[in-house]
Amino acid sequence: MSRRVSRFDRALSDLPEGMRWREWMGRVEAAIFASPQPVPRETLAHLVGDACRLDELLADIATELKARPYEIVFVAGGFQFRTRPRHAEALRSLNETKDAGPPAFTRLEMLALSAIAYQQPVTRAELSRLAGRDISRDVLGRLKSCGVISPGPRAPEPGAPIAWVTTPRFLEAFALGSLRDLPDLDALDALDAAGVLGRDIDVEVEGALDEALGLMEEGGVEADDTALDETEAEA
Fold first, then answer.
1. What is the rounded average pLDDT of the residues 66-72?
2. In the prediction, which pLDDT does 96 show?
3. What is the pLDDT of residues 117-135, one digit of tens each?
4. pLDDT digits over 6-39, tens only?
5. Structure confidence by residue, pLDDT tens digits, 167-206
6. 228: number of CA atoms within 13 Å, CB side?
């Protein structure tokens, strides 16, 4: 195996410059296409010569894909093929692709997920305080079943409750390269400093969180209000 890898010609120095560039483009595109997970930049760099300007190469691939219903995006620390968002509804209409695109969340689920994304690790009690309403175990269970959150470390406080964190699936679902790509919520910080958060959640805050993550509302708060009895374990 190692002998086969050592013969792999990354540089392609025997090819004319134009052909070499096209071959590098094909290699990178094929690697991303064949991988079920986002492919890190470091992995792609092993497929091309040291002289390759990888960012320009990826930009050229993106240009060629402009007319296609899919694209290459940087998510969860790597590059991945994605169908374009405008086709998500059409794909969901097919039984075999009903999970295409980001999961659909209710407003309360969206609120909890946004709070976890920005405040993680965070306990359910803290989430409820931030939201100004009860975040039930059912809500957290639904987010967990979608794979966008997972139990993190236990909080160093009485009872050692579970603190929740987002997952790589969260980054993939919302096309985020990393948590650093979350929109800056200075406005929320100002509200927090002013002591607004922790009381009844402000409509403007909900709007900012909706817009920040681009989440889709389906069902509304009323649908969630029926799922607020706490009957499940957190983990």
1. 92
2. 62
3. 988 999 999 999 888 888 9
4. 689 999 999 999 999 999 999 999 999 999 889 9
5. 988 888 887 888 888 877 665 565 455 554 444 444 444 5
6. 11
Whether residue 103 has pLDDT greater than 80 = no
Provide the 10 A C-beta neighbour count for residue 93. 10
Q: Under a CB-based contact definition with an 8 Å cutoff, are residues 123 and 162 in contact?
A: yes
Distance of CA 188 to CAs 191, 212, 216, Å?
A: 5, 11, 20
List C-alpha distances in Å: 171 to 107, 110, 141, 151, 218.
19, 15, 18, 16, 21
